Amino acid sequence: MKPALCVAVVSMLFGVQLAHAACPNDAAFLALGDQIRGYSLRANGATEPCQLLQGPLTTLMTAGATVIDKKDFFHVAQFLTSSTVDIFPRKAEGNEAPRRSFMLTETNDLLSIAVDSHLNDFVMTVRPSEAGVLVVPNNSSGPLPNPIRITDANISQYVSIAIDSDDNLLIAGYDIQGAVIIDTLGTSRSITSPPLLRSLTGSKTGLLPGGVGFARNDMTIAVDPRTDELFVYNATTDLTQIQVSVFAAKANGDVPPVRTISGPATGITGPGVPGNKIAVSSDGRLLVAEPNLRILAFAPGARGNVAPSQVIEDSTPGPITQGGIAVRSGRRGQQNEKDDDR
Predict the structure, then answer these.
(1) What mean pLDDT is predicted for residues 255-278?
(2) Is it the case that residue 334 has pLDDT exceeding 60?
(3) 212 pLDDT higher than 80
(4) Where do the segments described as Disordered lie (predicted)?
(5) Are 250 and 192 in contact (CB under 8 A)?
(6) C-alpha span between 291 and 324 (Å, rounded)
(7) What pLDDT digit, counting tens, does each position of 7-40 carry?
(8) Are residues 50 and 30 in contact, defined by beta-carbon separation less than 8 angstroms?
(9) What does 152-173 look like in DSSP terms, one character per residue?
(10) To the nearest 10°, the Cα dihedral for 258, 264, 270, 276?
């Protein structure tokens, strides 16, 4: 059987919908358990995905936390059913196997992931006996029984991580009383023993407290790739309050946000499956993942009870649950196409 015909047969058997071409350089992607869907950042209203990765060769089952590295490769962490992180090239589509995978054999509670400029993976695990951030060197593959582990003495419940433009690790979580803490650790200086550089916490931050619980997903952090402003999606346990707070770059101590996006006009709802609830594009747009294959986009500088400037809605059938979101923007697409062959 010819390769193209073979792919078509597999696609029909497993219900895989193949898009016509890879997404443009500026695109948002939703990780939805057994699939990843991509959408142009220019889209507004009903639209079809410009990229769809799904099928048995992908090995995707519970994909949630997803990040895109500087070479536009997808790093996809699977939660609970697998201890695997899969790495796919930027044009991965259809029933395509990952370029490589690594397995964190001591845990499968992979709630958040980040990648630094050296392409090292930082994977957060939340199982109480193993909680922390595991560091996986670039180009790792196969089982990894003893990765470097970073822990934060200030945090009792880990919830979300990010990497800033200086290659430092931000860890968001709760202390033993349920107060929010967002620490910045100097992984640009040392990965094995990073010093504490900054700690954002206190009543002036306006961040919403919550009760400590296993595998929480009611807070997501994202760093603006251009300004290093810190965006924090935050919700109370009972979901009576939901907000996105924006803090100045390198905010430290008990300081207020520069602005907050919150209120019924925003359309922002509660957390979903493990994975990033928010992402920030290189032009400062806030992107929020919502159920039923919807993405809310807020203009740079948006504040208060404001409606989104765009609503990207998938017009094709698909999962109704909420997926983790990742964004690719402001990059040299032609150069990264060459990197697909690395």
Answers:
(1) 93
(2) no
(3) no
(4) 308-342
(5) no
(6) 10
(7) 333 344 444 454 456 899 999 999 999 999 999 9
(8) no
(9) -TT-SEEEEEEE-TTSPEEEEE
(10) -40
Q: What span, in angstroms and rounded, lies between the C-alpha atoms of 268 and 296?
A: 8
Please answer whether residues 285 and 297 qualify as being in contact, where contact means their C-beta atoms are separated by less than 8 angstroms.
yes
CA distance 211 to 177: 7
Whether the predicted pLDDT of 273 surpasses 80: no
Name the 3-class secondary structure at 3. Answer: helix
CA distance 33 to 331: 27
Task: Give the helix ranges, DSSP H, for the chain.
Answer: 3-14, 333-339
∠ at Cα 49 (234, 231), nearest 5°?
20
Sheet with 196-200, strands from edge to edge, namely 157-163, 169-174, 180-185, 196-200
Q: Has domain 18-339 been given CATH number 2.40.40.20? A: no
CB 98 within 8 A of CB 129: no
How does residue 339 score in pLDDT terms, banded at 50, 70 and 90?
low
The amino acid at 134: L
- Look up tokens 């029933």; give the residue: 95
What average pLDDT does the segment 276-297 reach? 96
**Other CB atoms closer than 10 Å to residue 18's CB: what's the count?**
15
pLDDT of amino acid 12 = 40
Residue 304 φ/ψ region, left for φ over 0, alpha for ψ in the -120 to 50 degree band, beta for the rest:
left
Asked if 212 and 157 count as a contact pair (C-beta separation under 8 A), the reply is: yes
Task: Give the model's confidence band at 168: pLDDT under 50 very low, under 70 low, under 90 confident, else very high.
Answer: very high
* Neighbouring residues of 219: CB distance < 8 A, sequence distance ≥ 6: 159, 160, 172, 173, 180, 210, 232, 233, 234, 235
In our burial notation (b when 16+ CB lie closer than 10 A, e otherwise), range 145-164 reads eebbebebebbbbbbbbbbb
What pLDDT, on a 0 to 100 scale, did the predictor assign at position 6? 42
Cα separation, 216 vs 235, whole angstroms: 11
Could you tell me if 199 and 186 are in contact, meaning their C-beta atoms sit under 8 angstroms apart?
A: no
- Find the angle CA(277)-CA(281)-CA(286) to the nearest 5 degrees: 50
User: What angle (nearest 5°) sits at the alpha carbon of residue 32, between those of residues 26 and 35?
Assistant: 80
